[in-house]
Amino acid sequence: MKAFSRLSIALFYSLFCISVSWADGFPVDKVYHPYVLANERELEWRLTSRQNDDGNVLAQRFAYGHSVSEYLTIEGYIVGERDDTGDFGLQAYEIEARWMLTDQGELWADWGMLFELEKQHREDIYEFTSGLLFEKEFTQTSLTINALLVYEWGKDIQDEFETEFRLKYRYRYLPALQPSIEIYTGEDFVGIGPGFMGVHRYEGQKQLKWELAFIAGLNGDAKDHTLRFALEYEF
Amino acid sequence: MNKPVNKTFGCAALFFGLFCQSILAAVPEYHIQLKDHLFFPSRIIIPANQKVKLVIDNQDNTPEEFDSFSLNREKVIFAHRKAKIFIGPLKPGEYGFFGEYNPNTARGTVIVEHSKKESPDAN
User: Fold this and answer.
1) CA within 20 to 30 Å of B81's CA: A1, A57, A149, B1, which one?
2) Structural domains of chain A, ranges and CATH numbers in brackets
């Protein structure tokens, strides 16, 4: 019944979160799975490049993560972005915790929670993200959904709540190639596009995961495309 | 009550029902030993279209990681500890699994059949 208690709290929290507000940020990012693997450490690199009528926005994240128990993993990030003058530099720092609420396959679907705290470099802007991670297997396919609530505050920003929604429907074709459809929504943004991921195993727990997605914005702009790519080395 | 509130409560009731159903349903258990980096039994026969729980008892002095792409499961089994792994409902067929730390020896197969037959050496 422990899983049931954890899940009930998470569900009602998420229903509250989703009913509060909508996002005006840029929601295309990783779609998180609700799983944690014990003893796992990882190095991660993510790249997001968005091209619209205003130009190109490039962001990169470098991270180190470590699972601290069978159900909890902690990851620290440094975020770099290209600024208005075209220079690429440090933009933010972030710490993230992912909590696996149920064992995989234990319930009708698998559940987890995500918590992130981000501080902008040289600006008094903070961002706290929390939300529910969901995954459900349908034979050889998996549906993953993230429902996130973001709160921003600080002297250099107007305090506000935002929500983000991310969805991935993946066909587990081969370990090295798993095509998917990804959907992202927030205020003034709806995006959809194809994605691909794969895993290459080395010995023991060592493996390299890659993800690639091309998301087209459907929010009325003449041009709004996002390419996202991620590499994760787990060891 | 307005429509969004009704929808919220409707969704909550639906999810609550699904959770209760998942928790209250009895799940058959199949026990596997891991000793000297070998799974025993290495062939587990389970019924089709039914969720089951594999309980793996690691009797070795080192941890092992249960891994199966076809079963879509990954789980670390600590030394001298038991781990539970829920699998299914599955279609009839054979689903291989292995231990990531000792992939040459720690290997096994879950055999899914229509009629419910238990492996003779499964507990």
Assistant:
1) A1
2) 2-234 (2.40.160.40)
Contact status, residue B98 vs residue B22, Cβ threshold 8 Å: no
Which of B72, B82, B98 has the highest number of chain A CBs within 10 A, making it the mutation to test binding with A?
B72
- Contacts of B67 by beta carbon, 8 Å cutoff, 6+ apart: B73, B74, B97, B98, B99, B100
Confidence of residue A15 (pLDDT cuts 50, 70, 90): very low
Angle at the Cα of B90 from the Cα atoms of A103 and A37, rounded to 5 degrees: 25
Facing residues of B108 across strands?
B97
Q: Do B76 and A38 make contact, defined as CB atoms within 8 angstroms?
A: yes
Nearest to A14 by CA among A130, A159, A183: A130
Chain A nearest-CA distance from B121, in A, is 25
Q: How far apart are CA B61 and CA B83, in angstroms?
A: 15
> What are A44's two structure tokens?
């991660």
C-alpha A49: how far from chain center:
15
Q: Which residues in chain B have Cβ-Cβ distances shorter than 8 Å to A139?
A: 91
Give the per-residue pLDDT at A16. Answer: 47
Which of A19, A107, A204 shows the shortest C-beta gap to B23? A107
Token readout for B71 is: 């079963």
Query: A2-20 and B3-24 are packed helices; what angle lies between their axes, rounded to 10 degrees?
Result: 160
CA dist A13 and A17 (Å) reads 6
Test mutation, A17, A22, A107, A178, chain B, max B CBs within 10 A: A107
- Partners of B18 on chain A (C-beta within 8 Å) are 107-109
How do the pLDDT tens digits run along chain B, 123 residues long?
Answer: 455 555 555 656 666 655 555 555 689 999 999 999 999 999 999 999 999 999 999 999 999 999 999 999 999 999 999 999 999 999 999 999 999 999 999 999 999 999 755 444 444
Check if the interface score ipTM surpasses 0.90.
Answer: no
Consecutive H or E run containing A231: strand A224-234
Count, in order, helices (H) and strands (E) of chain B. Answer: 1, 9
pLDDT at A221 over 80: no
CATH class as words, domain B27-113: mainly beta
